[in-house]
Write a structure and sequence with these properties.
alpha+beta, Beta-Lactamase, 4 domains, 20 helices
Length: 588
């Protein structure tokens, strides 16, 4: 499964063995560790720090990029698909310098690389960024990848220009949170906020994590006395208003007694009764920014690095035994997104192999067996599973293979992520591409209509459809092609007068996805035809509605939004082929 996400090696090394998971307090600790790991992942994906994993190839193609690359206008797919190489977006005058400096660090045998340079956003704007990367080498010392973080520092550069002096490069998030300037805390809702968790990089303030975890130091005690009451008051007001987050700037004392300005962003956790139980947050040293504010004699907008911390994600964590059908020893609570409970698996009532789509299980078994046989450390694969209500979902699994001291595989630790929408989006794009090619190769209207219907009916949620075109001579709209409908139903809906409710709705130029759109007589026919969901997409050409694409389902009760977007895109695509030749066609 070759998960090359930055920091993943640290994560897998902190997993306990099976005895720890199986037993009492250590099992609880393992569960808590997983939740914290998911919280850290969320911090990265919701910060301004973009995480990359680049191949050591020309222009550095990306194997992984965090979702917040959208801050630069790009999508994850732009990079992962290879459509955009990272070197393509670096400002041309900086590209050689970046390559030369990186090569110098590699030849020195350095473990990392750091540099400031310019990139182009997708909109073509120039942005200054700070990159810090780890240089990955294989066992022979050959550089294979670079894993790093990219932070937009354009605003800081503008401040430097105003002050006419250089500022030291800001420390930014690296692949793992413990190398970040943002210190992560989990505080109890008690006097002075005792900490139950603090990341190791608290050392930047002179403290150790154990100083706080042991309760030897309470967090409230390191806040400057002149700021403490204000912070307490602000937090209490946020709690009383029922707000979910808290944000404040104040001073803290380092262990050496120095004053540092920090920015705190915190998520207020409540139980089922609405009572506050604890606070999850990050504390970021903003002393350099405060110095800039003082030099410029004005306030700068607080730099947004991290958003509210949450302890859940779309990635479901598993610990499987290496036995038949992979019994589950641990699964995270967000398994509910697939319609199951934790108890379903941990009780043994459901084995993981039971939910794998039967046509995929053999290929999974063979790929996993090959990874074990070749003594690989990880396994990665996309396949289908069945949800609790027996729907089929595509998932991506990334797993670490656990072995005992005899090199025998005992467990698999991994995450499973729902990638159905990603798969469906790719499928829809491919359908549109193929349809465009096919329509370009014919001038026969009926052939075009058949191609359109056949293409749209490849979508799982759609199993019937028809195309109506406007008949100027008869002042009506006619059904000119159809699929998946009974002959009796087709006979009754073959044409609509221009003043009928159905035709009037088409002329409004707005798509319709409700059965209530139809008149009572038509609604009765739809029920008899056992149609449960509809989509009526007007086709507009040069300001005139020339007809509509009509689709239906006998299996779902609503057309999903991604399918709606696909159908509306199809309507825009095909009308330019249909319109020029529809008047010449013999529809009947």
């Amino acid at each position: 499964m070759n998960d090359k996400n930055a920091g993943y090696e640290e994560k897998k090394n902190r997993y306990p063995d099976s005895a720890d998971v199986a037993g009492g307090e250590r099992g609880k600790a393992f569960h808590a560790a997983l939740e914290r790991e998911e919280a850290l992942k969320t911090i990265i994906n919701n910060s301004q720090v973009v995480v990359f994993l680049w191949k050591n190839e020309e222009k550095w193609p990306a194997e992984f990029v965090s979702e917040n690359v959208v801050n630069f206008g790009y999508t994850v797919e732009d990079f992962i698909s290879g459509r955009v190489l990272y070197g393509d977006i670096i400002y041309p005058e900086d590209l050689n310098k970046v390559g030369e400096e990186l090569q110098k660090r590699i030849l020195m045998g350095a473990p990392d690389f750091s540099m400031e340079y310019r990139i182009f956003s997708k909109a073509g704007k120039i942005r200054w960024v700070n990159e810090r990367s780890f240089i990955e080498r294989d066992q022979e010392g050959k550089v294979t990848h670079f894993q790093g973080v990219v932070l937009d520092i354009t605003e800081r550069k503008r401040s430097e220009e105003k002050l006419k002096k250089a500022l030291e490069m800001q420390k930014v998030l690296t692949a793992v949170i413990n190398n970040s300037p943002a210190v992560v805390f989990l505080w109890k809702n008690e006097k002075y906020w005792p900490a139950t968790f603090v990341s190791d990089n608290i050392v930047q303030f002179g403290y150790t994590a154990s100083d706080f975890i042991s309760q030897g130091i309470l967090y409230g005690k390191i806040i400057h006395p002149d700021d403490l009451k204000r912070v307490e008051g602000e937090l209490e007001r946020h709690i009383q208003k029922g707000e979910v987050s808290f944000n404040s700037e104040y001073r803290i004392l380092t262990k050496a007694g120095d004053l540092r300005w920090v920015n705190e962003k915190t998520f207020i956790q409540r139980d089922g009764n609405g009572s506050v139980t604890c606070f999850q947050g990050i504390v970021l040293d903003i002393t350099p920014r405060k110095k800039i504010e003082e030099a410029l004699r004005k306030s700068l907008e607080m730099q947004k690095l991290l958003k509210t911390i949450v302890n859940k994600s779309s990635a479901v964590a598993f610990l499987w035994k290496n036995t038949e059908n992979w019994p589950v020893e641990f699964v995270s609570e967000n398994i509910t997104q697939f319609g199951y409970s934790v108890e379903d698996f941990t009780s043994g009532k459901i084995l993981y192999g039971d939910i794998i789509y039967k046509e995929d299980i053999n290929s999974i078994f063979e790929s996993l067996a090959r990874a074990v046989r070749e003594e690989l450390d990880s396994f990665e694969m996309e396949y289908r599973i069945l949800t609790g209500d027996r729907n089929v979902r595509w998932v991506e699994e990334r797993t670490y293979i656990q072995r005992d001291n005899k090199n025998t595989v005992t467990h698999f630790q991994g995450i499973v992520v729902d990638v159905t929408e990603r798969k469906e989006a790719r499928e829809m794009l491919e359908i549109q591409r193929e349809l465009s090619i096919a329509l370009s190769s014919t001038w026969n209207l009926q052939a075009m209509l058949n191609l359109i219907l056949d293409s749209c009916l490849k979508i799982r949620e759609i199993d019937a459809g028809g195309i109506y075109l406007k008949d100027e001579l008869l002042d009506q709209i006619n059904l000119v092609a159809h699929r998946g409908l009974s002959s009796d139903f087709v006979e009754k809906i073959y044409a609509y007068r221009a003043d009928s409710p159905e035709a009037k709705q088409v002329w409004t130029e707005k798509p319709v996805y409700k059965l209530s759109f139809f008149a009572e007589e038509m609604a009765g026919m739809l029920r008899k035809e056992k149609i449960t969901a509809v989509a009526v997409i007007p086709m507009k050409h040069r300001g005139e509605v020339i007809g509509s694409l009509n689709f239906a389902s006998h299996t779902v009760d609503r057309i999903p939004h991604n399918v709606r977007n696909f159908l509306e895109s199809i309507a825009l695509q095909v009308v330019n082929y249909i319109a020029p030749i529809r008047i010449e066609a013999d529809f009947i």
